[in-house]
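Working notes for the structural subgroup meeting. M.R. asked for a predicted model of this chain before we commit to crystallization trials. I am recording the input and output together here so anyone reviewing the notebook later can reproduce the run.

Input as submitted:
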Amino acid sequence: MRRRVFGVAAFLLAVLVLVVGCGSGVSPTEQSQQKSVASVEAALRARGLTKVTLRIRHADGSVEEHCVWLADSELERQRGLMEVSDPTIGGAEAMVFSFEGESSVGFWMKDTPQPLSVAWISGSGEVLDTADMDPCPASSSSCPRYPAPRPYRLAIEMAQGRLQDWGIEPGATVMLAQAC
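Returned structure, recorded in C-alpha cell form:
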C-alpha cells in the first residue's frame, strides 16, 4: 500500500513539475515582453491617460481603426512619451495629442529614449505632414524642435517609421472615435 501511495505521489509530483515547467507555452522572453507592456500600460494609466479609437480613412476609401493613448490635457501633452522605451507604447502603439483649438506647438524629444515619428492632423482630419524625431538625452542643453507646417488639432506619435504601416500620410484623413 505504501508503494502504491508513494508511486501516486511521485506521479502527481512529476505532473506538477511538467505543468509548472511548461507554463502557458509562452517563452521567458515573451513573458518578459508581456510584463514590460503591462508595466508601461499601468504607468500611462497612472498618468491619467485613456485609450480611444483612431479612425484612418485612406485615399482609396478604406478605413482602419486602432486603439491608441489619448493625451488631451496640458500636463498629458507636455509629458507625452517621455521615459517610455517600449516601442508598442504599452500595447497601443501610438499616442494622440488632442488640442481644444488650433495649435502650432512644436514637438521635441527631451527624455524620450526611443526614436519616434509624428504626424500633424488638421481640424478636418487632413494629414498635414510627418517627421521623424530622434531621442534627445536628458543631459542635453538643447533639443531640436519639430514644428508643424501649419496649425493643427491632433498630433500622432509612434515608433519611428510606423506611421506608414498605418497609412498615416498625406491623402489620408484621421479622426478620433469612441473609447476602446
